[in-house]
Design brief:
Layout lengths: L3 H6 L10 H14 L1 E5 L4 H4 L4 E3 L8 H4 L2 H5 L1 E5 L3 H11 L4 E4 L6 H13 L3 E4 L14 H9 L3 E8 L2 E3 L7 E3 L4 E6 L11 H17 L4
Parallel strand pairs: 1-9, 2-5, 2-6, 3-4, 3-5
Antiparallel strand pairs: 6-9, 7-8
Length: about 220
């Protein structure tokens, strides 16, 4: 007889209403048990139109909850085409964030096309550039390529918890501790040159990776 875990792992799509409960828990915990601070010197949350945003995978737990509703409704997140990605898509939908399914390994072309359309319509496109499998804090070229071909700035964003637990996963996923401070830190936009070749993509990948590390507090 198959175990409950084995049977659960075969379920590719849960009823969407199931994710209402974790949505309520995340929203409630975020505003009842944490202090919030936003560092946004360029006022990007209010004024940016159609940028490429990058955030490390291990900072995602409260990422949808800490931004104002207006910003969430202007955001499309690129989410893995895997089963876990389906769960993430269903959850962030309750926060008003649209999901674009695909990654560098699966559905990448469709995700890139969808992301381009989203930018044309004035949405922000959000990536976890070291996800879904790592290596930790190593950025992929996908966001750089999109920014270069679309001539859209890349904006590094980090969610830094003053105190947190780390899970034993490839990215040491962070769970903020109760009554800590969650700081949303938004870096300066980086304007990627157009029509980059492979050498240029790598150079800018490293620049943006460093810019994101500069606002990452461990």
């Amino acid at each position: 007889m198959k175990s409950f875990k084995e049977r659960f792992r075969k379920i590719k799509k849960l009823p969407t209403w199931v994710f209402f409960f974790p949505y309520i828990i995340l929203r409630g915990c975020c505003f009842l048990f944490f202090r919030h601070r936003i560092i946004d010197p360029g006022n990007m949350i209010e004024n940016a139109r159609g940028c490429v945003a990058v955030t490390w995978h291990n900072r995602l737990l409260y990422f949808p909850a800490v931004f104002p509703k207006k910003a969430r409704k202007r955001t499309v997140a690129v989410v893995s085409a895997s089963r876990d990605g389906q769960y993430v898509s269903d959850l962030i939908g309750f926060f008003g964030i649209k999901a674009m399914r695909g990654s560098s390994k699966k559905g990448g072309a469709n995700a890139l096309l969808g992301a381009t359309r989203a930018l044309d319509e004035g949405f922000h496109v959000s990536f976890t550039p070291d996800g879904p499998r790592g290596p930790k804090y190593v950025m992929s070229k996908g966001p750089v390529y999109l920014a270069s071909t679309h001539q859209t700035p890349v904006v590094p964003i980090s969610i830094n918890a003053s105190r947190y637990w780390s899970i034993r996963s490839w990215d040491n996923f962070q769970i903020p501790k109760p009554f800590c401070t969650l700081t949303v830190e938004i870096g300066e936009p980086l304007n990627v040159p157009p029509n980059l070749d492979e050498k240029g993509l790598e150079e800018w990948r490293l620049k943006i990776q460093q810019a994101l590390m500069d606002i990452t507090r461990d």
